[in-house]
Amino acid sequence: MKLSGWGRYPVADCALSAPRDDAALAALLAEGTPLIARGNGRAYGDSALNRQRTVSTRHFNRMLDFDTKTGVLTAEAGVLLGDVIAAFLPHGWFPAVTPGTRFVSLGGMAAANVHGKNHHLDGGFRNFVDWVEVMGEDGTVTRASRDENPDLFDWTLGGMGLTGVILRLAMRLRRVETGWIRQRAIAAPDLSAAMAAFEAGHDAPYSVAWIDCLSSGARLGRSVVMLGEHAPLDHLPTRFRRLPYGPPPKRGRSMPFNAPGFALNRWTVSAFNALYYRMGARKAGTTYVPWDSYFYPLDSVLGWNRIYGRRGFIQFQCVLPEGAAREGLTALLKTIAAAGQGSFLAVLKKMGADGGRFSFPMPGYTLALDFPVTDKVLTLMDELDRITLDHEGRFYLAKDARLRPETLHTADPRAGEFASMRRQTGAAPAFASLQSERLGL
Amino acid sequence: MSGGAVLILGARSDIGLAIAQAFAAEGHAIQLAARDPDTLEAARNDLALRHGVDVSLHAFDALDYDSHEAFLDALPVLPEIAVCTVGFMGEQTESETDMNAARLVMRSNFEGPASILGLIANRFEARGNGIIVGISSVAGDRGRATNYVYGSAKAGFTAWLAGLRNRLAGSGVHVLTVKPGFVATAMTEGMDLPERLTAQPQAVGRAVLRAVNARRNVIYVKPVWWLVMLVIRSIPEAIFKKMRI
Ligand SMILES: Cc1cc2nc3c(=O)[nH]c(=O)nc-3n(C[C@H](O)[C@H](O)[C@H](O)COP(=O)(O)OP(=O)(O)OC[C@H]3O[C@@H](n4cnc5c(N)ncnc54)[C@H](O)[C@@H]3O)c2cc1C
Ligand SMILES: NC(=O)c1ccc[n+]([C@@H]2O[C@H](COP(=O)([O-])OP(=O)(O)OC[C@H]3O[C@@H](n4cnc5c(N)ncnc54)[C@H](OP(=O)(O)O)[C@@H]3O)[C@@H](O)[C@H]2O)c1
Q1: Residue A100 domain-assigned?
Q2: Which one of B65, B148, B150, B220 is the catalytic residue?
Q3: A428 part of a folded domain
Q4: Is B86 helix (H, G, I), strand (E, B) or coil?
Q5: Which pLDDT score is estimated for A276?
Q6: Are both A381 and A249 inside the same structural domain?
Q7: How many domains would you assign to chain A?
Q8: How far away, in angstroms, is B83 Cα from ligand 1 center?
């Protein structure tokens, strides 16, 4: 079956299985064919692809327990984050960490140790996972937590499915009084202003910026920085108090066709960005936004990944350490603006520290951009890799489809440790993705 | 919010669980009945956590006729809605050579479901209300070489449901016949099904909920199946018997 990640690049013909229980998965492993787990396919590239055997967790989709005192949810790994929100937000609970789409599985969130807009204060998903149960190459299930099998825990959170298949996990939700976010938008005329807004807004629980990637010169890095927090009930304007958890998410409209490639030439993109900038400037000041449009603005357009046309798109995401961030971001943005290849989405975010032995985040700034796949863009990516390397940055594997192994291993010595850990534990021959093969993990 | 209880007979099936999810989302208490109810523990927790409804598990074998009255007596309440998703396809070739295998298919799709629903219908009639949902199949619309043993049992079940509907019209008890076309479930796993004609179990769940609310009599889940079966039924037998479909 033809499968791809969210970016629809690369596409590979993969044998897809969907076991219904632990025993069926163990039986697949016993056959000895290397396999990779696949959650909801929201990683952009080839993290969840294996031609010989890709294992969907869609039948592992049950919520098992919820502790109303501690907010700990126990669930199977294929449960979608959006379903967790649907079940628990009406009772005043919200995920402690969420990526920019709610259509991810809990297993995928753990495997990538995803980060959200609160990373600068709270760290990644790992910090809110009490334990995971992982099926290893011999079919046995091991529970791993900070106290029990801590090595397995540390390698699995951020291990991109390469330590085994996560079957179940316990995660902590956070208490919220409402489903509304109090948002403050700050129009930042350039990169320095954007970074200053992040620093000044450090105490805001959520922060993120949209960057106009095509402006250059004095306006390089102009952006809208958005700070947010869960609105307490008594702060909510009275007209919203009737529905403290917000209206239920709109049923998505879907993108029924592959948009032609020309829809995304640099003019439409710059028009989009300019509009966004004006919107941000006009909205500057405080607004109340429902949780879904705040955290998941793109989820209301189902299948938006098709806007890039048949060839698909790739995402570049790196994190630069605090000290080198300003200089590195400037170099990245200059290169991107000069290339004029257009980036529909460009997101800048300040990150804090994180745990785990192979997690992506580190204190500094992360930049994420989408590009349609073209030969020019692939060349541009190599250029961006080089700048990232020069500034001691790291790359996010959940977004990657084309990084070169030497780049990864130079950027991140932990990659080599990860690979040798996999050889030692016996995970290497049992769990492999196109990505792990490409990158020598 | 809590609606009347919904009983799912054959609740380990993907279609049965999807129907349970659809009704639980509307606040209905759920009774899951299956041969091996212990395996439904996770499903029970999931339904309860997602939708905040009461969920109970019950041992039930559609072919263990003597146990049926006691099974019904032991339910927490006589349900408002009873859904039967019990079914067994078997292997057509095996059903041609091994009559025990053939009889199991016939009994699992007709005799068993009709027996339990017959008892439930009488209790609903005595109460003066209730909704019976039978999952039959398009396979029962015309016998075909590739699955006529299963198809004939479904045909019998379809006719039985139609007659029951006729009998109970005006009694306050409604009967819905569901004839799904292909559905991607454990039953059809590994088969090469045409994508456009294949529904997901969740779609069946939603369709059944809508049909119950609208008091529909007979539904095909994907409307295109109505047309497909119209064509298949209208081919003259002299031609049909030579066709391989
Ligand atoms: C619009 C959009 C916005 C995003 N925003 C963010 C963001 O803000 N922050 C962020 O961190 N990420 C973000 N992502 C990336 C996304 O959160 C991750 O790729 C996540 O891993 C996807 O989960 P999934 O269930 O779709 O996993 P898949 O894409 O199916 O798999 C991703 C990886 O997880 C592994 N995996 C999945 N399930 C299991 C399991 N049960 N056991 C072991 N390994 C498993 C796979 O092997 C693979 O390596 C975004 C993605 C999109 C499309
Ligand atoms: N999938 C399709 O394409 C399709 C199309 C049309 C109609 N249908 C019908 O839809 C219904 C559900 O099927 P499905 O696709 O979800 O497949 P399924 O998973 O095989 O479901 C059939 C269920 O019937 C149960 N069952 C069989 N004999 C039983 C008995 N004697 N007592 C109690 N339960 C019994 C099975 O229980 P166990 O789990 O204990 O074995 C199983 O859960 C069936 O009636 C089927 O004929 C399916």
Answers
A1: yes
A2: B150
A3: no
A4: coil
A5: 62
A6: yes
A7: 2
A8: 37
pTM of the model: 0.94
Regarding whether A254 and A367 lie in a shared domain, the answer is yes
The predicted-structure confidence for A65-99, as pLDDT tens digits, reads as follows 999 999 999 999 999 999 999 999 999 999 999 99
Same-domain check for residues A113 and A195: no
Contact A64 B186 (CB under 8 A): no
Q: Quick one: pLDDT at residue A214?
A: 78
What residues make up the domain containing A163? 58-177
Which residues in chain A are contacts of B43 at CB distance < 8 A? Answer: 62
In this structure, are A213 and A316 located in the same domain? yes
A19 domain-assigned: no
Structure tokens at A332: 């990245």
Q: Do A153 and A214 belong to one domain? A: no
Residue pLDDT, tens place only, A199-228: 999 999 999 998 888 788 998 998 889 899
The dihedral built from the CA positions of residue B184, B190, B196 and B197, taken in this order, carries a sign that is negative
A/B interface, count of CB pairs below 8 Å: 23
Assess whether pLDDT exceeds 70 at residue A282: no
Q: Determine the distance in angstroms separating the CA of B25 from the nearest CA of chain A, rounded to an integer.
A: 10
Report the length, in residues, of chain A: 441
Residue A127, CA atoms < 13 Å, CB-side half-sphere: 20
CA distances from B223 to A247, B133, B179, B194 (A): 31, 18, 11, 15
What is the rounded CA–CA span in Å between residue A245 and residue A256?
A: 31
**Mutational test site, ligand 2, from B61, B104, B183, max ligand atoms within 8 Å of CB:** B183
CATH number at residue A312: 3.30.70.2520
Report how far apart the first and last C-alpha atoms of chain B are (Å, whole number): 48
Q: Mean pLDDT over residues A246-269, rounded?
A: 53
Three-state SS at B163 = helix
Domain assignment of residue A46, yes or no: no
Taking the CA of residue B215 and the nearest CA in chain A, the distance in Å comes to: 25
Residues at CB less than 6 angstroms from ligand 1: A 5-6, 36-43, 47-48, 57, 77, 99-101, 104-105, 107-109, 111-112, 114-115, 160-161, 165-166, 298, 398, 433
Across A267-276, B7-16, B72-81, B179-188, least confident range: A267-276
Q: What is the CATH number of the domain that holds A128?
A: 3.30.465.10
Last residue of a domain, one of A177, A211, A233: A177
Instruction: Give the CATH number of domain B3-240.
Output: 3.40.50.720
Counting DSSP H helices and E strands in chain A, the numbers are 15, 21
Is B141's C-beta closer than 6 angstroms to any atom of ligand 2?
no
Which numbered atom of ligand 2 lies nearest the CA of B182?
3
Q: Do A64 and B50 touch (CB under 8 A)?
A: no
Distance from chain centroid for Cα A78: 16
